[in-house]
Amino acid sequence: MWKRILLSIGIIIIGVHVLFQAGYYLTSRPGFCAKCHEVDRYVSSWQAAAHKNYNCLDCHQTRGELGKIYTKARGLNYTLQHLSGNYTVPTKAFIPEGNCIACHLGDIKNAPDAPVLTNTSKINHFEVIKKNQSCLDCHRNTGHETDIYLTPNFQKTWK
What we know:
By secondary structure, the protein is an all-alpha fold.
């Protein structure tokens, strides 16, 4: 009896994991993200940016399996906002600083050509990281243009 219960639980866990991974894969491409008009300009901008060879989630997801779950929960929330019409643009992007640092220290295997962090006479990246400053303070438009749905006087350019 207990063996059947444990086996059933194991099969359910494996099935849920396989379904999640398939859904994760299918919903993690820039083309999928661009289906909502709130982000289509960002995806277009990304296609001309320095990070165009990387997937959206390379920058916008916390690493690890729990990071995948957290990211997809955020994505589901954005989807529900889109479907209900209860959203604003731009949505505050989530970019874990660790992604920038890991990539530019050479820790991400699929980014072998990423420039490695250095210190120069103008900027000491070690001090920036030590002070927990955001990479986006200086590199805000690196992945793609930001705030492209607003004019300088905060007029909306979508609908």
